[in-house]
Write a structure and sequence with these properties.
Structural class: mainly alpha
Distance between the termini: 16 Å
CATH class: Mainly Alpha
Radius of gyration: 16 Å
CATH architecture: Orthogonal Bundle
Number of helices: 7
């Protein structure tokens, strides 16, 4: 059943990550903090791909990407393609990445976020005509800084409620 194998935890973590991703900052905070907004969905996707690759696959990654495109106003398929790339990379090396320390996993995540940000910035530049910049490095940095507590929380929840 869905309650016994932990799929509910995967679903809820993705749902929460998607909700947090589209939340706006309060008005009293400075506008430049938008550039430091972490990529919650990729962080959760990376966690589940390396910890439970049998639960999260390419189709799940693509299906999560479509509503993110709609909610964020990105070109349709852009987030799905990026999420599939992250999932494929994680699937290919999950046994090795799982043995890394949290710092090393954070470095791998930063590299993935750098490539994803580069792809997104280039595609948006060509499709929407927006100026190309390295602003995505702020997103990658804050995502990696939040990787340590978020991965630990998900690990505790997985151990407590799924028993792995």
């Amino acid at each position: 059943m869905i309650l016994e194998d932990g799929r509910w935890l995967v679903f809820l973590s993705f749902l929460l990550a998607m909700i947090i991703s589209v939340m706006r900052l309060p008005n009293f905070l400075p506008d430049w903090l938008v550039y430091l907004d972490p990529d919650w969905v990729i962080m959760v996707l990376f966690y589940w791909v390396i910890q439970a690759p049998e639960r999260v696959g390419l189709i799940v990654a693509w299906l999560i990407g479509f509503p993110m495109d709609v909610m964020l106003g990105d070109p349709i398929g852009l987030n799905g393609a990026c999420f599939v790339g992250v999932t494929f990379f994680g699937w290919t090396l999950y046994e090795r990445i799982r043995m890394f320390s949290s710092m090393q996993q954070g470095a791998v995540l930063f590299g993935l976020l750098f490539v994803v940000g580069l792809v997104k910035a280039t595609v948006v530049h060509f499709i929407q005509g927006l100026e190309w910049s390295l602003i995505f490095l702020g997103t990658a940095t804050t995502t990696v800084l939040l990787w340590f507590p978020v991965s630990r929380i998900l690990q505790i929840l997985t151990t407590r409620y799924v028993g792995e």
